[in-house]
Design brief:
Blueprint lengths: L2 H4 L2 H20 L1 E2 L3 H22 L10 H35 L4 E11 L10 E6 L2 E6 L2 H9 L6 E8 L5 E9 L2
Antiparallel strand pairs: 1-6, 2-3, 2-5, 3-4, 5-6
Helix pairs in contact: 2-4, 3-4
Length: 181
């Protein structure tokens, strides 16, 4: 890898991490994002990433025995770059979904929680799975909500969602609270 290629790598990595963080946080509050759109965006992102990875040829080697590892690392770079591009393409769509949802009224939905982690070792895992409109949704929740789920002694746990309907059949979560009935 040449020094010219290394010059911008640190700023690119920092910007990529910020973009991924913002996009993933915004995506967490959007329910029922169309699978077909996600797949189409990722394929489009992968084609662009593969083209530029091939064109930039970041990992190169003149030796015959090092060409396969270089091609392997260029492939990994293409997949990672495609993920960053996917986040970049989804961000304006997510912003549009949030803006359109503001035009609709708030709906209260009570959904059964189907899965949550009981382990206390990894406190970072704060995801729950619940059923929303006959579909299984996985959503990251606040630590306080996860603690409330674990404290409840009943077997039936529910999440009360405050959502707004938006475009593409999506819903935007405004607020949520763990309940038992």
């Amino acid at each position: 890898m040449s020094d010219k290629k290394l010059k911008y790598i640190s700023s690119f990595i920092i910007l990529s991490l910020i973009l991924i963080f913002v996009s993933r946080n915004m995506s967490n509050h959007i329910l029922l994002f169309p699978y077909w759109l996600n797949t189409l965006l990722y394929l489009f992102s992968f084609v662009i990433a593969f083209y530029y990875t091939k064109r930039w040829n970041v990992f190169t080697s003149d030796k015959e025995e090092n060409k396969k590892p270089a091609a392997f690392f260029n492939g990994i770079l293409a997949v990672l770059l495609a993920f960053v591009l996917l986040c970049a393409f989804r961000l304006p769509i997510n912003i549009l979904i949030k803006q359109q949802s503001a035009k609709n009224e708030r709906i209260t939905q009570i959904c059964p929680i189907t899965f949550y982690s009981l382990g206390l070792k990894n406190r970072r895992k704060k995801h729950i799975t619940f059923t929303f409109q006959h579909k299984s949704i996985r959503m990251k929740v606040k630590p306080s909500a996860m603690a409330k789920i674990k404290m409840l002694q009943t077997s039936q746990k529910f999440i009360q969602l405050q959502v707004r309907k938006s475009i593409l059949g999506t819903y935007v979560v405004e607020d949520y609270e763990v309940k038992y009935i």
